[in-house]
Amino acid sequence: MGTFHYPNGKKVTSIAKKKSSSSMKRDISYSNRGMSLEDDINQSNDYYLLTNQAIIHKKPTPVQIVNVEYPKRSAAVIREAYFKLASTTDYNGVYKGRYIDFEAKETKNKTSFPLKNFHEHQITHMQQIIDHGGISFVILRFSSTDESYLFDSSHLIHFWKEQSLGRKSIPKAEIEEKGHSITIGYQPRLNYLHIVDSVYFSSSF
């Protein structure tokens, strides 16, 4: 793989090499516990689709290819490309007649979740989803302890706004209090829709 450019013009080089390196680290980190958060969610979404519970997919990132080489007739190698737009959130779909939209993030931190993992355009997007009556949340994973939480976007937005007061992260204690722990199972791997039912479809919400 060659060079990719983000919308701000910043280059991303040797993508294949970086991806391979991160995959190796991921394999080491989860060798005794499980897959990456993205893998867990993708497997869960496949199960939800197969069992006709929900239609939720990972959003594709629009890419404009500008330089392609054909070393073989049957194969093409992308040498240079641009990400057309800044991404919003990772996943969206429909569940029980409601639009659902969420982001998934991991951290190696043990006591807090860094706000730098999110971007202004993502926060804006989440607020727009809420304003239009959609379901918006983030799935946060503490990779060192393999703990995952569903955290409503309204809470994330609150902490995001407090950056002006010097806040740099969300304490894990706050995530445990305001969020909802998601247990890891077999089918589905990460049953986050069980939490969605109790949070967004209960009469108390």
Automatic annotation (TrEMBL):
Cofactor note: Binds 1 Mg(2+) ion per subunit.
InterPro entries: Resolv_RecU (IPR004612), Restrct_endonuc-II-like (IPR011335), tRNA_endonuc-like_dom_sf (IPR011856)
TM ranges: none
Binding positions (Mg(2+)): T88, D90, E103, Q122
Site (Transition state stabilizer): K105
Superkingdom classification of source: Bacteria
Record-given protein name: Holliday junction resolvase RecU
Species name: Fictibacillus barbaricus
Gene giving rise to this polypeptide: recU
